[in-house]
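Per your request, structure below.
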């Protein structure tokens, strides 16, 4: 993805399949909130942190994700990395979006590592069990996809570790989801 992702082209892409102005406004509100919360944060790549949730949300547009999933993608690191609370998100964005963000946050707490097939299978079951909404898994997959696209910033050892856990744990789940 060579084109810089920003809120304008995200909204343009969503509007190709969703013309509900209230829902588009909610996406913009989620972006503005996340951008404020991640202000002055940088990724290891040196990019402003907001580029990550924007890219995750853009990946979801390829699946024609609903506005709640797009909002949750934009907000997915605000609890873990920016000091937001589920209650605050619920007040601003509603229960369903806050619940999606909270579930993605819970999945992110799992230490994905496997030394054998049985352990990897068990971790896949835990991952699926934690997701009470399939959109949580889809957001997690989009999150990992964007992280894999920026894997070059890590040491070869860490690249191999992340690639292995992606192949053994997340890829089979993504395959099952289609």
């Amino acid at each position: 993805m060579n084109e810089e992702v920003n809120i304008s082209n995200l909204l343009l892409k969503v509007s190709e399949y969703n013309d509900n102005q209230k829902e588009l406004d909610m996406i913009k509100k989620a972006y503005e909130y996340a951008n404020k919360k991640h202000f002055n944060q940088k990724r290891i790549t040196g990019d402003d942190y907001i580029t990550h949730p924007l890219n995750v949300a853009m990946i979801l547009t390829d699946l024609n994700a609903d506005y709640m999933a797009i909002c949750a993608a934009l907000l997915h690191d605000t609890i873990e990395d920016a000091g937001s609370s589920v209650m605050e998100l619920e007040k601003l964005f509603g229960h369903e979006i806050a619940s999606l963000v909270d579930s993605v946050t819970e999945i992110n707490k799992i230490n994905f590592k496997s030394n054998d097939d049985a352990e990897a299978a068990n971790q896949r079951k835990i991952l699926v069990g934690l997701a009470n909404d399939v959109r949580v898994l889809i957001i997690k997959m989009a999150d990992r996809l964007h992280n894999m696209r920026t894997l070059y910033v890590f040491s070869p050892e860490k690249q191999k570790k992340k690639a292995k856990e992606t192949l053994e744990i997340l890829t089979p789940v993504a395959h099952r989801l289609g």
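The chain has a mean pLDDT of 89.

Regards,
D.
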